[in-house]
Fold each of these.
Amino acid sequence: MAASVEKTLAEQGVKSAEQVAALFGEVRSQAETDLRGVSTEKQFEEFRNQWLGRKAGALTKITDNWLKQAPGELKKSVGQEFNKFKTALEAVIEERRAAIEFGEEAAADAKDRVDLSLPGVVRSVGSRHLIRQVFQEIEDIFFSIGFSVVEGPEIETPYYNFEALNIPEFHPVRDDMDTFYMELPKGAPGQLLLRTHTSPMQIRTMEKHKPPVRVIVPGRVYRRDNPDATHSFAFHQVEGLAVDTDITFCDFTGTIEYFVKQFFGANVKTRFRPSYFPFTEPSVEFDASCVFCGGSGTTASGTCGKCKGAGWIELFGAGMVDPAVYGFVGYDPKRVSGFAFGIGIDRLAMLKYGIDDLQVFFQNDVRFLKQFP
Ligand code: DAH
């Protein structure tokens, strides 16, 4: 700031209009010099305080020391020069402010600028869970022979989960399939449970559709099992059902064998063993030759640990639909026949991919998941 603003005009010996103009000229060039030294926002603030500050800024001092104390004959020219000076000062200040803001923005931009030559950040892409992949494989195989996919509720009524599948309340097989029952409000119309198998969808499908029916039902099921290498309270199944007017046991075995060979490979051998399920008659258990020892029961290191030397591995349950089941869905057991099967997906995935602990499916450890991209 110019020192002259601290003194009155009289103190500086200014007596004429020309001298007043010269004095303002000096102050103005001082202001311009000061302003040229301003390059940051902070310096700009200081400059504004010095020149425009209400209390001690140069403009206030000029008003107090020059204008208010000017002798009468100089008042007019001081006023005019002062106004000119203020206008000029405002203009240069504005110009400088814009330049500084622009400069700082440009500097900030330069700092934030994306450097396209740097190596990128690789985000890993997720993949389908192995169980989901196996569902998909199975669905594709059954699609190819004319089945369609339906899904059903995981919370079921005892009627669909048991009774309509020919499992009355005190039937002993219920012991194997004891399950989780929902806690319901008082006065609820009936019990609800977590389905123990995907078989209830046999009933729901036949209730809705007249024969012919060809469906598979992928889904999650629940049982009161303690977790270990082959058990879990939640696991996965694919149910299958085919009903028509002329379906025979041969259609049944042909379909199942076709599926197993597609899934495990053409070299796998298959066999049926008699079994029992309340909703099929006859019922079978379906085995495949052990995929680990090729059915021989032995490996290089001795007895095959997977089939325990038997050469066969149990795959799933199946059978011809029991005529009693048709009674629950309004089908005429004299006219229709069909077959059903229930495949444990976790078990199938373990066999196909050589996994020896069921629990890894539920732990979601990426080291496991990444092996099945
Ligand atoms: N629902 C049976 C279970 O979970 C599996 C099963 C067996 C399903 C035979 C079927 C069948 O459709 O015919 O143990």
Note: The pocket of 3,4-dihydroxyphenylalanine is lined by residues 197, 199, 239, 277, 280, 317-319, 340-342 (CB under 6 Å).
Amino acid sequence: MRTENAPVIRLEDYRPTDFLIDKVSLDVVLEPTATRVTAVLAVRGNPAGRPGSPLVLQGDELKLLAISLDGERLAPNRYKADPQGLAIEAPLPEAFTLTIETEINPSANTKLMGLYRSSGIYCTQCEAEGFRRITYFLDRPDVLSVYTTRIEAARDDAPLLLANGNLIERGEIAGTNRHFAVWHDPFPKPSYLFALVGGRLDTLAETFITASGREVEVAIHVEAGKRDRAAYALDALKRSMRWDERVFGREYDLDVFNVVAVSDFNMGAMENKGLNVFNDKYVLASSDTATDADYAGIETVIAHEYFHNWTGNRITCRDWFQLCLKEGLTVFRDQEFSSDERSRPVKRIADVRGLRRQQFAEDSGPLAHPVRPRSYREINNFYTATVYEKGAEIVRMLRVLIGADAFRRGMDLYFAHFDGTAATIEDFLGCFAEASGRDLTHFAQWYEQAGTPVVTAAGHYDPAARSFRLDLTQKTPPTPGQAEKQPMVIPIALGLIGESGRELTLTTAEGNLIENGLFVLDGASASITFTGVDERPVPSLLRGFSAPVKLETDLAEADLFVLFRHDSDGFNQWQASQTLATRFILEAVRGARDDVDARFTEALVHFLDQRAESDPAFAAQVLALPSEADIAREIGRDIDPAAIFDAHMMVKSRIGAALGERLEALYAKLHSSAPYSPDAASAGRRALRNAALSLIAAGDPAAGEKLAGTQFKDADNMTERFGALAVLALIPGSGREEALAAFAARYRDDPLVLDKWFALQASIPEAETLERIKDLMRHPAFSMGNPNRVRALLGSFAMTNATQFNRPDGKGYDLIAETVITLDRRNPQIAARLLTAFRTWRMLEAGRREKAEAALRQVAASPSLSPDVADIAGRSLQ
Ligand code: PHE
Ligand code: ZN
């Protein structure tokens, strides 16, 4: 299908369905290539719909075997069926039972949507529109039904049979090698939350007692032989359940909570009611195979999917335009959980780095869209950083604006009013307006207006009047379909710091102290005058990153040093160090600098003296420079990735050289011979040690290679082993190739670990990398059919290797374009996702821009593209 033909779906066209389906009873007879599904649907007219309508159900690649209405075979002239849909003519009874029998082929399902097999395990993925690949249905989130699922399979093939809800019956089918299980989910849910699993799996299970004393069996099911790698995920799950009780008053509601890990999965994980299905990357961990970052990722994703039980499942979305209602809110909740379990400032820094890298990049290019889009062609393409991460930022701003108490009351109202329903953003905001007594109409613009607002701040100190005036402005650049922008409601958390580092009291000219240091910029510009200011202050603005904006200040370098040294806000202290580094790199790109200011390296040494030992995780964030992509975004146009790389490298190596001895001492001191533990404090020390190693190697490659070589050999955990390998990978020569080969040999049978190996090689910033990737695509462990492999090798290349993806000869673009075209026939979602690597192509310098455009046009012109890829290609070129 070509872009021109895929229909546009618009929010303003929303209308309730003409029918409701109160009950769904599914009988699924699992067979590898011919699975039979019998659906018995209790249908009735929707009072909110149009009476006398035909019943139109969606399908996708379905084969209809039989259909009957109230037990009577339906005459062929009363319905029309094809693989994509089923329509039954009016008139229809007020309420009736529809029985539909379909046949599907899970083994041939390479899109990994609907029912498919992953390493011999039957599993399903129904969000957003996968249920229609199992049976004909009103496959949209505002149709809520109670499901009963009977699964039947060969006992050997699938000893474990799971579906949503509670197990109500199981047994043998006498005289056969087959068995069955019946699951019932009492909570009405939309079809996208349906799931079933059948296979040979190992189980790790425990009992969890909820706050009110109910017993819940929590179980993680993994591929045979990997049970001991599920322990951390199970622990994270129990901690998530406790946290949601404590922080949001939300208890779990079924007798079992099942998590199944599969190795072929399009996304991270899926919150199906009572039966989460996970990409095994976000479940499996052992000290030998997972890095600290992997452990943190598991904790976050386990929590995220669990939290969906209330924000997404008990309260779901009216339509897919409201996707951020569940996703933004649930990301906010998982961020809060991880902050509470680990370090709040470090978590905030990591989240903001991610937001800037993904969401700011998306927001500044042709794929920019509002957190609640107004139209789409392919909903799969809207599971974006904007919907998820910017969506979470909006919830965070809401809490900053109305305060934590009113926020919690608003959440309670939301659960009380909308439990069991399919809700909208208006419903959600209404609860916070009610709880806080505030008008949130203007604030709601955050859901409607795309683009990253730019806030400028300029300060004026008047020593005679002892006053300080802060002038603030905001402006949002145009985005596709939105040329004119309105001012937004921007909460700016701020403080004033004296030269000596003292936090100054905030008194405004009007005499009103700004509550909690919060100023709300809700017009195009505003000024605040602070009085009684005895010394020239340095403003610390946007503390904790209180709004997802780009801040431009008139701060001098000396001011930034004050903030770096003294800011009591951890986020802004880190930000000051990043802003300084960014300035140096930008000057180097312009050719205006070939060294790093000694005051900066001295400040870093001073900082390490103060904080390296007390807060190593935070120190590691300070030592990690802004990325090349961060610098590219600052420059914004005519970008030359090679020049950015050189400047970045220069700054990094100068810092490494200047701090060499201090870093080596730190590196030695941070060594630990205690057995590995993934806890945050130990992880922080390893993070700092690896950050130090990386800088040492930049400053003195020979010294770095030596340390990294030893660390690689001696490491007893993946964080240290891979940290060393990542340093070695940047130093050309036989040492690197030997280490890479040793790593591959050791983890030959471990695809998840080999993904790290693929990703690392794909990110080497050398011209030879292109050939290396082409070789790796022929490696026996690589497969175009597995999304994790594709993301590791090609995704990492396109998204993280700026100089090589953007090779001046265009061959990096060609590789990705060709891969997208091939992959599209197999798995359109993954192909479309890979193509978003071109999202900032218009900001490149002319030569590369031309080559990137040619590659995009090649994709767009390719015959029989999926709607997924056609949509991304079309919008990228618009
Ligand atoms: N809803 C899943 C999540 O939480 C993401 C997902 C979307 C998974 C679509 C599969 C398909 O975040
Ligand atoms: Zn989610």
Note: The longest helix spans residues 344-363.
